[in-house]
UniProtKB/TrEMBL annotation:
It comes from the Bacteria. It comes from Pseudobacteroides cellulosolvens ATCC 35603 = DSM 2933. Its cofactor is Zn(2+); a divalent metal cation. One of its GO terms (biological process) is proteolysis. This is Peptidase T-like protein.
Length: 370
């Protein structure tokens, strides 16, 4: 049985550790010790060296006593900003930050659900197969920990990533690919008061391109956004350079390609109309994935949900996570809710009841593998 006091105390302890992206050293050292204390063989890979971080991913493995496929339990160690000097305020069933920082439940909630589930399995002398654990770096800055994980150490058939919000029992089984898009619009600078007709306004080009562009919700699988625009030096100079950062996402690769090409064409047409130039670069940040409802991992989830009385809800998500990367490595992976709410904001919160339910669900997931 999950120990509520223990999981809450550990949650409060871990969120007090500063663990910004690529600065997860203190969190990593603590988690290495926790896993070692539970009898895991622990290994730190070289992802930090490859990415400029101060530590690598933490990988643990414990041999099971049951002849079933190995599983991988996964959560990320890093948080977004503002994430320094985080403090937990508990009122009733809800844990919040003090309002000046994020709480850090994304993804400390995932970490403690894994640690507590492992303790419960050991305390109850449950039978289970080999368990691998990966606590990754840099998830919030492009999934770079998962991308650089030492997969030569991983032999799991199934992966349960504990890194989603919503009701406990909500599981993401399909997610989109994302293209990161960088655009530079080039015009011609002249004095805006003396001879504006001789200039080419890069802002006007960018504005026209965006006005012709399909953005936001394109369809039920596809979204697109212009997120950052920088340009101009003074009001008396026709702007000759605008830099934009954008993205496109889709759970259908052909739709992603089509949307990206559409955005590029809008900029090309606008540059041609006004006499400017553009540079357009797109980069795939992560691939899409789709788990079918008749796949074995769904059977595991269904059996676990029945055992603990938690309603299983399979969903398609518009976000990316380490789950995308793990699936691309040939491991069936799903993203499991741990109840985090209002993440990436100073209003972030989580309920104690959801922490307990998330760990309980994970215990049954491990037991249901066959």
């Amino acid at each position: 049985m999950v120990n509520q006091d223990r999981i809450v105390n550990e949650f409060v302890e871990l969120i007090s550790i500063d663990s910004l992206s690529l600065k997860e050293r203190n969190m990593a050292d603590l988690l290495k010790n926790r896993l070692s204390d539970m009898g895991f063989d622990v290994y730190e890979d070289d992802a930090g060296i490859k990415t400029g971080g101060n530590c690598g991913n933490i990988i643990g493995e414990k041999k099971g006593n049951k002849n079933v496929p190995a599983i991988l339990l996964m959560a990320h160690m890093d948080t977004v900003t503002p994430g320094i000097n985080k403090k937990a305020n508990i009122k009733g069933d809800i844990i919040r930050s003090d309002g000046t920082t994020i709480l850090g439940g994304d993804d400390v909630a995932g970490i403690v659900s894994i640690l507590e589930a492992l303790r419960v399995l050991a305390e109850n002398n449950e039978e289970y197969g080999d368990i691998q654990v990966a606590f990754t770096i840099g998830e919030e800055v492009g999934l770079i920990g998962a991308k650089n994980l030492d997969y030569s150490k991983i032999h799991a058939k199934y992966c349960f990533v504990m890194d989603s919000g919503g009701d406990i029992g909500l599981v993401a089984i399909t997610a989109p690919s994302q293209n990161k898009i960088d655009i530079v619009v080039k015009g011609k600078a002249v004095h805006a008061g003396l001879e504006p007709e001789k200039g080419v306004n890069a802002i006007a080009i960018a504005a026209h391109a965006i006005s012709q562009m399909k953005l936001g919700r394109i369809d039920d699988e596809t979204t697109a956004n212009i997120g950052i625009i920088n340009g101009g030096n003074a009001t008396n100079i026709i702007c000759d350079r605008v830099e934009l950062k954008a993205e496109a996402r889709s759970r259908c690769d052909n739709k992603l390609k089509s949307q990206t090409n559409h955005m590029k064409q809008c900029f090309l047409d606008a540059a041609d109309k006004f006499g400017g130039e553009i540079e357009f670069k797109d980069e795939l940040m992560y691939p899409s994935f789709k788990i079918n409802e008749d796949d074995d991992i769904i059977g595991i989830l269904k059996n676990a949900s029945e055992k603990c009385g938690i309603k299983l809800v399979l969903e398609a998500t518009g976000g990316g996570s380490d789950t995308n990367i793990v699936n691309s490595k040939g491991i069936q992976a799903v993203d499991v809710s741990v109840g985090m709410d209002k993440v990436h904001s100073v209003e972030e919160q989580i309920s104690i009841g959801d922490l307990v339910k998330a760990a309980s669900f994970l215990v049954e997931i491990v037991k249901a593998v066959k």
